[in-house]
Amino acid sequence: MSRLKGARARLRAWLRRGAVERELDEELRWHLEMETEKYLRQGLAPEEARRRARLAFGSIERCREEHRDVRGMRQPERLWNDLRYAARGLARSKGFTLAAVLTLALGIGANAAAFGVVDALLYRPPAGVGDPDSLYRLRLSPLPPDPDVQQSWRAAWATYPEFAALRDRTRPLAEVAAYSMSTVIYGQGTEARELRALAVSDNYFTTLQADPGLGRFWSPGDEISELELGRFWSLGDAIAAGPVVVVGHDFWRRELGADPDVIGRTILASAVTLTIVGVAPAHFKGVDLDAVDLFLPINTTTGVTSREQLEARNSYWLWMVARPEPGVLPEAVATRATEVLAELVREYPGPLDSEPGQVDLIPVTDRFAGVDRISVGPTSPVPVWILGVTAVVLLIACANVSNLLLARGAGRRRELAIRAAIGASRGRIVQLLLTESLVLAALGGGAGLLLSLSSARLLRLFDLPPLDPLIDTRVLGFSLTVAMATSVLIGLLPAARLSRANVETELKAATPRATYDRSRLRAALTVAQVALSIMLLVNAGLFVRSLRNVTAIDEGFDFDRLLVVSTGFQRGTPPERVRAAQEAGIEVLRAIPGVVSAALARDAPYGRPGMQRLANESWGLPPEAIVAAVYLRVGPEYFRTLGLPLRAGRVLDRGDRAESEPVMVINETLAGMLGGENSALDRCIPQRDGCTRIVGVVADARFGDPLEEPLPATYYPLAQERVSTSSRAVLLVRTAVPPSEIAAPIRRDLMEGEPALQLVEVQSVAELLRPKLGPWRMATGIFTLFGGVAFLLATIGLYSVIAYLVAARRPEMGIRIALGASGARIRALVLAEGVRLVVTGSALGLALAFGASRLLEHRMYGVQATDPLTYTVVAILMATAALAASFISAERASRVDPNVALRSD
Fold first, then answer.
1. For a tag on the chain, would you pick the N or C end, based on fewer CB atoms within 10 A?
2. Alpha carbons 208 and 229: distance in angstroms, whole number
3. 100 with 344: CB under 8 angstroms?
4. Is the dihedral of CA 775, 777, 781, 787 positive or negative?
5. In sequence order, what E strands does 588-735 have?
């Protein structure tokens, strides 16, 4: 109980210091009055009685201090006084304070932003999802692994029948939900644009245990019935009630003005009237990172056009999540789900794989399973690189500020010696100095957080998904921890060094000036800054060269001023009308000034081209060969529009119609497998629809990954394709003018000629290639950005050290000049000091860079970790910066007036 009372008394003394001090004064006054009263009763005069009472009572101030010690008030009071003293001192040294705060702001702000990115991408649980630790992704994979390229997608997607079976047959053990990312067309005319829509099963929100921000989520009764589904997809027919939709929180604020009465309103998307029944909570994106504008019932997604396609057993388009029932292990759910797949294989042996698949459950909190597009190499996510690089920048910033504190502390030696002489212990002096570094770290941390708030724009440079919010309580806690650790890092070494000052020597000094001290500690900190910045700059240079090598790869076709025009039609438009409108659009495009040629194709370059496994017997391939070829349907002028050279035979032209002989063109790689161009030409390949003749061979091209060797490719006439629900195509356009000048005329002219056309999207092939180069762009941007910051900090640190050296040795320089030393001799003396530091730091930095680049070498392209050009350029850059930083101080030293310098001494 006494301990509890003591704790309460100390807490009250901290929180109500003024009241406790008043109570103490009253108590001391009462004791003094009682002592005075005693002497008055002995017959002493009042004045003498008060004097005797004060002598008997002792020092009142000592009593106050003892009381404060008992109540635990001494340390908070000391800390408060130290904080005030540090704030006043920093306010007087505005230049030093500004430099230190800005340096720390760069280091702490970069680390706060980096932690926010890494946390949001890899560790932060999905926003709005209840109990995310018990929610899992279902991943299906075939057994044994199928060499067919198309089947490799099974690890990610499932068919609707597979989902329905897993949902119904595993329900006693877990709830299984499905979703698929799609797009819808929002708006009309030239203002139309695509929105991201998530098609989800009716139990999706309940499985995620999500609560709506407004309204409600839908229930199974909101699903469109089988009869309505047939009517829904008919041309020009809109269901009176309309399917329901839950709008995303950002969409609600951006497009609907955050109207609280939005429930029951309708919006038009892809020519379909959707009734809003709810608004998703803020930041809710499901279990993935991509922002979602609309949440639709699964049978109203744009990817489903008929009941038959919804029930197709060879259409893989769904992701699945599962939440096991309380007490059920994920392994039990995976085992039961694998059994369900085996049951489906037995029930439907034809359409499904010949072997059953296996199901794995992966926690949705395991973000490493979903960041492939932001990785370089198979196992290293780029966000982890960001955190590592920014940590190096923070170390450089700490070394820089420590150097500044050491230089500033050299001028405070006399002050600290006086404090020690009047009784301040070494620990007390260290506390005072650490308090000053704490104030600097707090100011730098606050400025760094403001800097990190604006860093979200930089994420666009790294092609990262939208991360909202980037700064949250976890990031704030991390920033506070970093600021506290930084205060210790920047203050401990200067405090330990300055607290060891010789009191007698410092008090004998005639003036409180800074004396020259060849500090190994300051030199070591400067060398560390130079070394770490060189390490980052070398890796930046290696990745810059990697990116240059990647962009210089010969893709096999000319994509300069090559555009891809994607079209979106009203839902339910017959495929025949879509194809006719697209063919008419080709003629419209060719009539636009600035268009050189135009052609239709089923797939755009760097999209997701179709793949087919070539039948060995039909193609005359060795029986043991497994050949998967790119499958492309193209229209006339395709090869001219892409700039693909013809090697032999002819290209596809307008004469290749549906009623003519089936033909194809192959690439050089496939022709080589068939014995060469002469052997391949005119060969007729037996296929499902008959015999298809090879009429031409064209050059190889990379249509998927720009770094992979060209795959075998087959090109079939688009006109000989059976028009089906999936027979949509893109329009390829080669222009003689920049894309920005012709995009608007393309949209306008195409939409004027076809009423059913809702959306025209124009992209350059360079834009489609950009995501493929994302890993190298991100790595280049990360190391270049933070390497530049590190280089700047190291240069500033070197300049501050040399400037301090010159200021401290000013009397020495005056003596040298008075004895006849020339300005050139003085400059050489100062420059030699800077060169010594930079040479040492460069040697250490190049060694560190070699070790770091060896770890990252397998993620570079066309460049070695020991690339001499990169190392040489970085070394020259650092040497130039060092000479420039040193020369300013050297020039100042050479102009020292001997009379003024000696008089000041």
1. N
2. 27
3. no
4. positive
5. 595-601, 610-613, 628-634, 646-649, 663-667, 684-687, 690-698, 713-717, 730-735
Q: Which residue is it, tokens 């080589």?
A: 672
Torsion of Cα atoms, 386 then 389 then 394 then 399, to 10° = 180
- pLDDT tens digits, 533-578: 888 888 888 888 887 777 776 666 667 788 888 887 776 677 778 8
Whether residue 335 contacts residue 324, with contact meaning beta carbons closer than 8 Å, is answered with no
Question: Contact, 249 vs 279, CB < 8 A?
Answer: yes
Q: Side-chain half-sphere of 448: how many Cα atoms within 13 Å?
A: 34
Q: Write a three-state SS string for 41-110.
A: HCCCCHHHHHHHHHHHHCCHHHHHHHHHHHHCCHHHHHHHHHHHHHHHHHHHCHHHHHHHHHHHHHHHHH
Confidence of residue 628 (pLDDT cuts 50, 70, 90): confident
Backbone angles phi, psi at 361, to 5 degrees: -105, 120
What is the C-alpha to C-alpha distance for residues 582 and 574, in angstroms, rounded to an integer?
Answer: 13
Count Cβ neighbours within 10 Å for each residue of 730-764 and write b for 16 or more, e otherwise: bbbbbbeeebeebbebbbeebbeebebbbbbbbbb
Distance between CA atoms of 707 and 131, rounded to whole angstroms?
A: 41
Half-sphere exposure (CA, 13 Å, Cβ side) for 148? 16
Helices then strands, each counted (H, E), the chain: 30, 21
- The distance of Cα 875 from the centroid of its chain, to the nearest Å, equals 30
Cβ neighbours of 11 (radius 10 Å): 11
Structure-token pair, residue 112 = 């706060």
pLDDT score, position 853: 81
Query: What is the DSSP secondary structure assignment for residue 416, as one 8-state letter?
Result: H
On whether the CB atoms of residues 357 and 166 are closer than 8 A, the answer is no
Query: Residue 282: pLDDT above 50?
Result: yes
Which residue shows structure tokens 């540090």?
Answer: 86
pLDDT at 452 over 60: yes
Lowest-confidence segment of 172-176, 381-385, 759-763, 813-817 by average pLDDT: 381-385
**713 close to 570: Cβ distance less than 8 angstroms:** no
Distance of CA 410 to the CA centre of its chain: 42
Instruction: Specify whether the CB–CB gap between 543 and 453 falls below 8 A.
Output: no
142: helix, coil or strand? strand
Cβ proximity of 254 and 230 under 8 Å: no
Q: Give the Cα separation of 310 and 319 in Å (integer).
A: 14
Question: For residues 700 and 556, is the Cβ–Cβ distance under 8 A?
Answer: yes
pTM above 0.70, yes or no: no
